[in-house]
From TrEMBL:
Pfam family, one: AAA_3
Domain ATPase AAA-3: 57-190
Source organism per UniProt: Bauldia litoralis
Domain ChlI/MoxR AAA lid, chain residue ranges per copy: 263-328
Name by which UniProt lists this protein: MoxR-like ATPase
Gene3D superfamilies xref list: Magnesium chelatase subunit I, C-Terminal domain, P-loop containing nucleotide triphosphate hydrolases
Length: 336
């Protein structure tokens, strides 16, 4: 007797097209709303949007004063998400992020534990200067970032949906910091490098932010709308050439694949989560640009932010002045 088959769900192309067009219009409005507050950081804004619409977490790296905190606050407003900010410091404890159990005493003298949720129970969590907290505290985010729930005293507590972590890190001041472990770095969909704005953007900033009226962001989406777009991203078709480019790129970044020069330079390379992240990211980038399928250009553009934090150089390579960017640039040149 044959096994029962699953009923086929009819796909309405017109409905999918209408939903995609509506999503593109919403994304365009969101970009415009963010642009009224954040100046001259178009690439950073786009990559942060890619991170959220792909359903992932982002690591923003840049010196102080480049509006990283302002960007996260603005995203929370524009996307209509509940947002919380945690300033990571050496004395921060895991319970300061996850929450803890407290003892309640009833009027009759009875006692019972009650869970008090921490700031991680939000839709958009900003982990400011995440590398300033101890490894024990950093690891408190691992389960929440991957599984979207936390376990306290053996009890599971689900996080709100959607749930995203945008962490910041200062690349210059390393005294008193704890490098993020590889397992946690791998949880970040993209590493987003925040650079100085160009001259014209900084000129605009001078006038817009030092006057009597400071521009504010307006809400464009809500949590349900964000999740709708995330589902559209996951449902986007991906051509075989793009899939092969993703596989070739990620696999060629690992030592032991026959490239002696790369084997000498790379201590360890990206795992399968990098392929998954790149697959989602190229879809999200295509949708943000108003396209209905990703291209090889998307793979090339997002190779660095996806791979950069998932690779490590050997001591010999670092001594020779080789950088991760150099390695990725060589791998990108082979795409297509």
């Amino acid at each position: 007797m044959s096994a029962p088959t699953q009923p086929q769900v009819a796909i309405d192309p017109d409905k999918i097209l209408a939903e995609t067009e509506a999503a593109v219009a919403k994304i365009r409005s969101a970009r415009e709303a963010i642009g009224k507050v954040i100046y001259g950081q178009e690439t950073v804004v786009d990559r942060t949007l890619i991170t959220i619409l792909a359903g992932g977490h982002g690591l923003l790296i840049g010196v102080p004063g480049l509006a990283k905190t302002k960007l996260v606050e603005t995203l929370g407003t524009v996307f209509g998400l509940n947002a919380a900010r945690v300033q990571f410091t050496p004395d921060l404890m895991p319970s300061d992020i996850l929450g803890s159990e407290v003892m309640d005493v009833g009027a009759d003298g009875s006692r019972a534990f009650r869970f008090v949720p921490g700031p991680v129970f939000t839709q958009l969590l900003m982990a400011d200067e995440i590398n300033r907290a101890s490894p024990r505290t950093q690891s408190a985010l691992l389960q929440s970032m991957q599984e979207h729930h936390v376990t306290v005293a053996g009890v599971r507590h689900d996080l709100p949906s959607p749930f995203h972590v945008l962490a910041t890190q200062n690349p210059l001041e390393q005294e008193g910091t704890y490098p993020l472990p590889e397992a946690q770095l791998d949880r970040f969909l993209l590493q987003i490098d925040v650079h100085y704005p160009d001259r014209e953007a900084e000129r605009r900033m001078l006038f817009e932010t030092t006057g009597s009226n400071d521009a504010g962001a307006e809400q464009v989406l809500d949590g349900e709308g964000v999740q709708t777009i995330q589902r559209l991203v996951r449902g986007m078709p991906v051509g075989e050439s793009v899939v092969e480019a993703i596989l070739n790129l990620v696999r060629s970044a690992r030592p032991g694949n026959g490239d002696a020069k790369l084997d000498e330079a790379v201590a360890w390379g990206p795992g399968p989560r990098a392929s998954q992240s790149l697959m989602l990211a190229v879809r999200a980038r295509a949708l943000i640009d108003g396209r209905y399928a990703p291209s090889l250009d998307d793979v090339s553009e997002l190779a660095e932010p996806v791979l950069k934090h998932r690779m490590a150089l050997t001591f010999a390579a670092r001594a020779d002045g080789v950088t991760i960017n150099d390695i990725i640039a060589g791998l990108k040149a082979k795409i297509g």
